[in-house]
Design a protein that fits this description.
The chain is mainly beta. The protein has two domains: about 150 residues, no CATH class; about 140 residues. The protein is built from six helices and 19 strands. The strands form four sheets. Strands 2, 3, 6, 7, 11, 13, 14, 15, 17 and 19 form a ten-stranded mixed beta sheet that branches. A four-stranded antiparallel beta sheet has the order 5-4-8-9, with no helix packed on it. A three-stranded antiparallel beta sheet has the order 10-12-16. It starts with a strand and ends in a 10-residue tail after the last helix.
C-alpha cells in the first residue's frame, strides 16, 4: 500500500507541450497498467477494469475514443489468489469480457473491456485476496491486495420484521429530524448511507403502469476512526429534505397517477484504500488543483479494494404518506 505522486497523461501532454518545443510525447513509451476493482462477498459476479495508459500525437480526447490504445488485447493473464492465515485457499482466473451499456463520456462507449469471474463458493469476508496481472508479452507483473469489509449492524432506523415502517413526519404533522446509527465493520472505513424512495406511474388514459422508478436521497458519508470495527457511527437527517428532494427529482405530470412504493435504507461500506482514494479525489475549492494521487497497485496505478452493503426495506407511516399527498412540496405530483 503506498501513496504516490503521478500526473494524468492528458495533463502531462498539455503542460509539457505548452512549455517546451523539445518535449517528445512519444519518447520512451512506458507500459503503465491501470487497475480498478472493488470486491464484494455478496456479489455472484466480480468485475475488475484493467487498461493501459496511452500517449500519442493526436488530441487526448480523440485518443480516448480509440479502444485499441487502452486495451491489452489478449496479452494478459489475470488471476485472483484467495488467502487465509498465510495459506492459499484457491486461485481463480478472470475472463475477459465486454460490457455493452457504458454511458457516453470522454472515453469510448458503449462497449468496454472488463475482466470478470463468478466465484463458487462466494468470496469469504475472512479472507484476503491478491490480484495478479501478468503481461504475457513483457512478463511484467502488476499486483494488488485487499481484505474484505465484514458484516455490520444497523441500530437506526429501527427495523421491525413484522411491521417495518419508517417516518419522516411526526404525529403532529411536522417534519421530523432523526438519526441513522450503525456500528462499524472490520476492514470498513467509509460509509455512505442513502434512502431510496420507490414509486410507479399509471397513465390515466391507457392505464399502463411503468416499471419501478425511484429517487435516491444520499446522505453525507461518514468515516470511522479505525478499521478495527465496533465503532458507533451516526448521522442525522431532516424529513423536510426528503420531500424537497422528491419535488426536485419528480416532475409534475398531470397525465399520470403515482403509486407510493417502499423506502429502502441502504448503507454501503468501503475499505481503507477506497476511503483514501475517494478523499483525495473529492472536488476542492482551492485555487491549487494539483494533489497527490493514491494507488495501492504495485507496478501500476489505480485502486483495488472492497465494499459491502446492507439494505432494509420499509413502508412509509401514515403521517409521511399524508405529507406526500398534501404537503407543500409534493401535493402537485399526483401521488395516490
Amino acid at each position: 500500500m503506498k501513496a504516490v505522486f503521478y500526473s494524468l497523461f492528458i495533463v502531462v501532454i498539455f503542460v509539457f507541450a505548452g512549455c517546451s518545443t523539445k518535449f517528445d510525447i512519444n519518447a520512451t513509451p512506458q507500459d503503465i497498467t491501470v487497475v480498478y476493482g472493488l470486491l464484494n462477498q455478496s456479489d455472484s459476479t466480480q468485475y475488475v477494469k484493467i487498461t493501459k495508459a496511452f500517449l500519442g500525437e493526436s488530441s487526448a480526447y480523440e485518443m480516448a475514443q480509440d479502444p485499441s490504445l487502452s486495451s491489452y488485447g489478449n496479452d494478459l493473464t489475470v488471476t485472483l489468489t484467495e488467502m487465509y492465515d498465510g495459506n492459499t485457499m484457491r486461485t481463480i482466473t478472470l475472463q475477459k469480457s465486454v460490457v455493452a451499456n457504458k454511458d457516453s463520456g470522454m472515453f469510448y462507449y458503449p462497449n468496454q473491456e472488463i475482466y470478470l469471474f463468478k466465484p463458487v463458493p462466494l468470496l469469504n469476508a475472512k479472507y484476503t485476496y491478491k490480484l495478479t496481472v501478468k503481461n504475457n508479452t513483457s512478463n511484467k507483473l502488476t499486483t494488488a491486495t485487499t481484505g474484505m469489509v465484514n458484516d455490520f449492524t444497523v441500530q437506526k432506523p429501527a427495523y421491525n420484521p413484522g411491521n417495518p415502517q419508517i417516518g419522516f413526519v411526526g404525529s403532529n404533522g411536522d417534519y421530523s429530524t432523526n438519526d441513522a446509527e450503525w456500528r462499524s465493520s472490520l476492514n470498513g472505513r467509509i460509509y455512505e448511507p442513502l434512502f431510496r424512495f420507490h414509486y410507479r406511474e399509471v397513465n390515466k388514459a391507457s392505464l399502463d403502469t411503468s416499471s419501478d422508478k425511484y429517487v435516491d436521497w444520499v446522505l453525507s458519508s461518514v468515516t470511522s476512526e479505525t478499521t478495527a470495527g465496533g465503532e458507533d457511527l451516526t448521522i442525522s437527517y431532516d424529513g423536510k429534505s426528503f420531500y424537497k428532494l422528491i419535488q426536485a427529482k419528480i416532475p409534475i405530470n398531470t397525465n399520470v397517477d403515482r403509486i407510493i412504493g417502499k423506502v429502502d435504507f441502504i448503507i454501503s461500506a468501503g475499505g481503507d484504500d477506497l476511503s483514501i482514494y475517494i478523499g483525495l479525489n473529492k472536488p476542492t475549492g482551492s485555487i491549487v488543483q494539483e494533489r497527490p494521487s493514491y494507488t495501492n497497485v504495485t507496478n501500476g496505478v489505480g485502486i483495488f479494494s472492497c465494499r459491502f452493503s446492507k439494505k432494509y426495506t420499509y413502508t412509509l407511516n401514515q403521517y409521511s404518506v399524508n405529507k406526500l399527498l398534501n404537503g407543500e412540496y409534493t401535493s402537485q405530483l399526483g401521488f395516490k
